[in-house]
Write a structure and sequence with these properties.
Strand order of the largest sheet: 1-6-7-5
Radius of gyration: 20 Å
Strand content: 15-25%
Number of helices: 6
Shape: elongated
Order of helices and strands: HEHEEEEEEEHHHHEE
Bound molecules: zinc ion
Largest sheet: 4 strands, antiparallel
Length: about 270
């Protein structure tokens, strides 16, 4: 599943390929995504110019003159920009053809992604309005998360992965951030000190930044190629390392399930 760094990399890869282009035609081959692709795009978009591509959580926001197209990649979705001469691929469900002879193609084998349209402020859209702050926002700071977590009995790992708390911290990143911040993942969120949250926020920011930086090398892949950067090669310190030695202290890395998700930690380094 594309996580926030992959979605941000997609944004950075796609934006220069579509910004300021004018739509000539929209073709919907299979509109049965997680929600139906609005058929009105076929008549609405031609003649409109794309201003830029933004992102909120894992949603990409394509700003057109009259509204915003909101794209979520779901489990297997990816975007690429091809020359019209390039043959369409299996699972290319939606194609936005530009007047310069290129096309933005949405490919999604499992079709759990979505393409939505709004005339209003996209941040107020029903899918986006209740989301917590972005991990790189100033609003995501130790005072905020410490205050929000008081009296919460939920374990700190699922708390960190809750999109109402902060968006974009997926399962792998949560395990890795808690390890770097030396916080045991099963500890109740309400029992984590403000100083520990300070370390956790720093760890989350570093890990996501590293993943986005690693994705930077794949940006060329959005034009006339696979269009899927995949997971970025990042050194994982605990995730997937159950039974192996902790890189800091030689204690064997443990694996537990928390909130139905595989969780990896060092019982010596994380308290
Ligand atoms: Zn350790």
């Amino acid at each position: 599943m594309p996580e926030l760094p992959e979605v941000e990399t997609t944004r950075r890869g796609i934006e220069p390929l579509v910004a300021n282009k004018v739509v000539a035609q929209v073709l919907i081959y299979n509109g049965s995504l997680r929600w139906p692709v609005p058929q009105e795009l076929i008549s609405l978009l031609p003649g409109q110019r794309i201003g830029g591509v933004g992102r909120r959580s894992k949603y990409l926001l394509f700003a057109f003159s009259s509204g915003t197209m909101i794209v979520h990649l779901g489990m297997t979705g990816h975007l690429r920009v091809d020359s019209m001469q390039t043959e369409k691929r299996k699972h290319d469900h939606v194609e936005i053809i530009f007047t310069d002879g290129t096309a933005l193609r949405y490919n999604d084998p499992r079709r759990f992604g979505s393409i939505l349209w709004t005339l209003a402020d996209p941040l107020q859209h029903v899918r986006l309005s209740a989301l917590g702050p972005e991990p790189f926002d100033r609003q995501f700071n130790a005072s905020y998360i410490h205050k929000l977590s008081r009296n919460r009995k939920v374990a700190v790992k699922p708390f960190l992965m809750d999109a109402h708390v902060v968006v974009g911290v997926g399962n792998i990143y949560a395990s890795e951030a808690l390890y770097r911040a030396r916080i045991a993942p099963a500890r109740p969120a309400g029992k984590v000190s403000k100083a520990a949250y300070e370390r956790l926020i720093q760890a989350v920011t570093i890990i996501l930044s590293e993943a986005i930086a690693a994705g930077g090398t794949t940006i060329k892949d959005f034009a006339n190629s696979e269009g899927k950067p995949g997971y970025f090669t990042q050194e994982l310190r605990v995730y997937g390392r159950a039974g192996q030695k902790c890189k800091a202290c030689d204690t064997l890395v443990k694996q537990i399930r928390l909130g139905q998700r595989s969780t990896f930690y060092c019982s010596n380094c994380q308290k």
